[in-house]
Each structure stands twice: as structure tokens, then as C-alpha cells.
């Protein structure tokens, strides 16, 4: 068996910077917004030089991507927990997922914005694509579809898009808002319409 080569002191220092910087950057972004995050401030808050920060991450975008990855993990865990009960039928699982999706957006608006609105004009990176595909596959399976079927993936992608649009109207402050509790009442209707219009059988 090949033994792993121990990390050098430099590598340990860089790993420590990454571990320390991400939660601090997360706090800044969630409390003050993306524009409040800059390399000089972050380096000062964790008591390292700007050069050391860049050595650890490459650039500030990499720090922000790490914050976004934490938000993605939180949403994924939230949605998986919502449908853990095996006794739920397919319709109920889909409605439960939609409601959990809405609840996350209401409870964590800044994380929601980071995941689905921030930098939305640029193509998603590999990890973002993997995250989104994972959510789609979970949705397909919850509704009794086959994640390997292109047709089923498209059907549930349309359903996701409709629920996402509803949640966006309920949570995005730049649009005349739809009351979140009113939005919740429409989730079941969207699920029923989707299942009726695009039967999986």
C-alpha cells in the first residue's frame, strides 16, 4: 500500500487559510451582500496577506464559489430531508419538494440569490452543473420517473421551471411580490397540472 505523502508546511498553511476564509467570507456575503466582499477586507479579517489569500484560492471568485457550494449543499440536504418518509406517494413527494424549495428561499434569501440569480448570465461551472443535475434527478425519482430518460428529464425540468418561477415571484424583491403563503397554495396545482399534462406512464 502506498503511503500518502505528508503535506508540506506551505500546503498546510494554504489549507488552513482556505478553511478559515470561507466561513468569514460567507458571513460577509450573507450579512452585507456580495459587493461587500473584497480581498483586502477578507485577508485582514483572517489576519493573512492578500498574496497569501490569492495563493490559497487563486482569485476572489474561487472564495465566492466555495460559499455558493456550501449554500448548494444546504439546499440539497433540505430537499432530501423533506422527502425522507418512504410512505409518501409521488404527488405528495413532489408537493413536499416544492414547499421545501419555497421555504428555503424564504428562510435563506441571500443563499437563494447566490444559487440562482448571482452571475446568472455566465455559464455555470462544473460543480454548479453537477448540483443542478443532482436536483433534477432527485425530482425525477420523487415523481416516479426514470432519471436516465431524456423525456422524463424534460418533463420534470418543465415542472421545476414552473415552481421555480412561482418561488421567484414570491421571494425576489425587485419584482412586485407574490405573497409567499399565496404562492404555497399554487404549488399543488402546478404539480397536478404537470402530472396531468405529461403523464409518466
From TrEMBL:
Q: What is this protein called?
A: TetR/AcrR family transcriptional regulator
Q: Which Gene3D superfamilies match?
A: Tetracycline Repressor, domain 2
This protein's record includes keyword Zinc? no
- PROSITE patterns recorded: HTH_TETR_2
- According to the entry, every stretch annotated as the HTH tetR-type domain falls at 15-75
The keyword DNA-binding is assigned to this record? yes
Q: Which GO terms describe its molecular function?
A: DNA-binding transcription factor activity; transcription cis-regulatory region binding
Q: Which residues bind DNA?
A: 38-57
Going by the UniProt record, its keywords in alphabetical order are: DNA-binding, Transcription, Transcription regulation
Lineage runs: Bacteria, Pseudomonadati, Pseudomonadota, Alphaproteobacteria, Rhodobacterales
Which species does the entry assign this protein to?
Answer: Sulfitobacter sediminilitoris
Look up the domain of life of the source. Answer: Bacteria
Q: Which SUPFAM superfamilies match?
A: Homeodomain-like (SSF46689), Tetracyclin repressor-like, C-terminal domain (SSF48498)
The record ties this protein, via InterPro entries, to:
Homeodomain-like_sf (IPR009057), HTH-type_TetR-like_transc_reg (IPR050109), HTH_TetR (IPR001647), MT1864/Rv1816-like_C (IPR025996), Tet_transcr_reg_TetR-rel_C_sf (IPR036271)
